[in-house]
Amino acid sequence: MQQQSIAELIGTGDVETTTVSTGADALDALQREAFDCMVLDLGLPDMTGFQLITRVKGEIGLRKLPIIVYTGKQLNKREEAELRRMAESVVIKDAQSPERLLDETALFLHRVTERLPEPKRRILENLHRTDPMLTGRKVLVVDDDVRNIFALTTFLERSDMKVIYAESGREGVARLQDTPDIDVVLMDVMMPEMDGYETMRTIREMPRFRSLPIVAVTAKAMKGDREKCIEAGASDYIAKPVDMDQLLSLLRVWLYR
C-alpha cells in the first residue's frame, strides 16, 4: 500500500516509477537501468537502509544518485548525522510528509511545477504558499559578498522569512549571541580570516547553539566538501550557485525538525 501510494504521488505522465521491496531487488534494478532519483525507507527486510546506501554509492558507484530517505523511524543523533552525510534529503513521515516527498522528488527530478497535473501542482503551490515552517522564521545569513546577501534576502523574504545578515564569521557569531531567537543559519564557507568551518565550530562550542540548524553554502561541490561541512558542525550542505527551490526544501526539513 505504501509503495502504491508513493508511486501514485510521484508518478503519472513525465515520471516512470519502479517499486521494489528489498535491498537486493533495489541493487539489481540499479544495475540494470539508469534512475534519476531513489526514495528509500530505512526498514527493509534484508538489510538496513544505511547498508543499501553504502552499497549504492560504493559498490555500484552511483555516488551522484539523489537519495531521499522517507522514513517513520525515530532517528538518534548519530543516525541523523550519518544520513545527512549519505543522502540528499530526509523526510520524516508525518501528516504533511506526502506533500514534502512530492516537493523533494520534483526538485531532484527537475520537474517544472507548471507542467505537473493540476492536483499535484495545487499541492505544491499550497505547500509553498502557506508553509508555516517558513513564515515568520528568522534566518541569519553569514557571507562576505553583499551580492549573495542581497539575493538570498530578497528570495527568503518572499517566503515571509525574517533575514539578519553578517559579513564575516566573527560578526556572524556576535549576531547570534545578540539575537538568540534565530531559527536557522546560512553559512558561507569561503570567507577571509575566520572561514565558515571555523565559524561553525565556534558556534557549536556554545551549548545553546548545539542543535541550531546550520546550512553550509560552498562555492562549488568539491569531493569531500559535504563530509568536511558536517564534521565542522553543519546540519546540511548546499553548493553555489544556490538552487533556491532546493534551499527552501532544506529549510523546510530543518525547521520542521
**CATH topological fold name of the largest domain:** Rossmann fold
Name of the CATH class of the largest domain = Alpha Beta
In terms of quaternary structure, the protein is single chain
Number of domains: 2
What can be said about the biggest beta sheet? Answer: 5 strands, parallel
Fraction in helix: 40-55%
| Reported CATH architecture of the largest domain | 3-Layer(aba) Sandwich
Q: What is the helix tally?
A: 11
Number of strands: 8
Strand order of the main beta sheet, please?
Answer: 5-4-6-7-8
Query: For the record, what is the CATH homologous superfamily label of the largest domain?
Result: Response regulator
Plain-language structure description:
By secondary structure, the chain is an alpha/beta fold. It has two domains: 2-129, 3-Layer(aba) Sandwich (Rossmann fold), CATH 3.40.50.2300; 138-242, Rossmann fold (3-Layer(aba) Sandwich), CATH 3.40.50.2300. It is 45% helix and 14% strand. The protein is built from eleven helices and eight strands. The strands form two sheets. The chain has a five-stranded parallel beta sheet, with helices on both faces. Helix 8 packs parallel to helix 9. The longest helix has 13 residues, at 146-158. The relative contact order is 0.10.
